[in-house]
Amino acid sequence: MLLRKSFFVFIVVFAFAGIATDVYANQRVALVIGNSAYQHTAQLGNPKNDATDIAAVLKQLGFQVIDGFDLDKVAFERKVRDFSAALRAAEVGLFFYAGHGLQVAGQNYLVPVDAKAETADALDWEMVRLDLVQRTMERAASTNIIFLDACRNNPLARNLARAMGTRSADIGGGLAPVESGIGTLISFSTQPGNVALDGKGRNSPYAGALVKRMAMSNDDLSGLLIDVRNDVRKETQNAQVPWEHSALTGRFYFNPATRPAPSAGPAPQANETDRQLRARSAALVERGRTYARNRDIDSAIADYSEAIRLIPTNAPAFNSRGFAYEIKRDYDRAIADYSEAIRLDPKYGLAITNRGILYGKKGDHDRAIADLSEAIRLDPKHAYALSNRGNAYRDKGEYDRAIADYNEAIRLDPKDASTFTNRGVAYSGKREYDRAIADSTEAIQLAPQYAPGYCNRGRAKQAKGDRRGGSEDINRANQLSPSSCR
Known about the structure:
Layout: H1 6-18, E1 28-34, H2 47-60, E2 64-69, H3 73-87, E3 92-98, E4 101-104, E5 107-110, H4 122-125, E6 128-129, H5 130-140, E7 143-149, H6 155-164, E8 171-172, E9 184-188, H7 205-216, H8 221-236, E10 243-246, H9 274-293, H10 297-310, H11 315-327, H12 331-344, H13 349-361, H14 365-378, H15 383-396, H16 399-412, H17 417-429, H18 433-446, H19 451-464, H20 467-480
Parallel strand pairs: 1-2, 1-3, 3-7, 7-9
Antiparallel strand pairs: 4-5, 4-8, 5-6, 9-10
């Protein structure tokens, strides 16, 4: 993988930690499940209706919807896998579940329709853990929303309690509280540990309020959920109070058209001097970078665009907007902006490097090498460009050229853990596993919390036949950064 450092690494890290943004239909993906027809306990009246109505509203709002009704364990897990695949190209993931759920020892489980819960191992073989779905979402999308209408009175919990014997005390009422990851909001139909109502009409009180508010509200998600809470309290006479845990990092709107446009300042005045316009344009670029650091990429793009409108020759604004588009995975726009920055300033090494790295990300290694070579020509001590050109050569299978670039990058910057790791990967490509292990070990010594170092050392150990040592390193990598080494 081609990497960025300094300010640009900072933005990438935050971008994937949770951007709340307005996105197009194919970037907003929802999994909607309603389980009513339980086979081994009384059926529930509303979950299938709830899921049907939620799915319809989400489709109207531009979501790609994967829905499922009355799912057994196999079908439930298949839907989660389909959801995982769709999330790879998404910025927003949403999960709605209506049906039975239960908590055991602080873990929440969603109940497929074929569950019996007659043995102590039913949790492993018959249920779906909520944290599996949550982890699947947080690995892929930067903004995630989870709606849970699964706190109904559950007779299967009594079956499980009998099977678990003395451990039955671990089974709690309702669902357990859950902490959301950065960029995630989890909304429960009622307070943790409480039981929600199934409802007497077509929908449960919670799902009915969600359907109504999503279809009509121009508020952001936080404001919408306040209205949902008040609707449910009113309908249930305060017996049920929806509750949420949020680590969202920006405002989310179901209808992106209602999102307030960021203020970019007054329009240019006829009597403004060129110096004043340039000062305003530069200030907008700086404010855009502040928005980017705060993970509000759409506001950053708006500021960069206004800076370009004021001064169409502002190459840094094009470069910064290109990187913002790259974070949003809009690679064609990003390349167009990098190219314009380079046209305006042919010696703009940062834009040349950024475009080269993006070409590599797209798999166009020859163009990546051409751009990075030009950046190195402009600055022969550009360790960052050398390291990334090494990555492009490595991805082409030209390991000796890659190692030569890594060697020079390390000579110029001997404290860069990522370059040692990447050189180790190239050595693994040549089946020189001892050298690969040595490089990854050096990366770990430089950065003890650097997951790729452990991951690549573990793989090199396994390739040498040290399965135990390799597994230990890979497990350590996944502890530092979940699913980083799968």
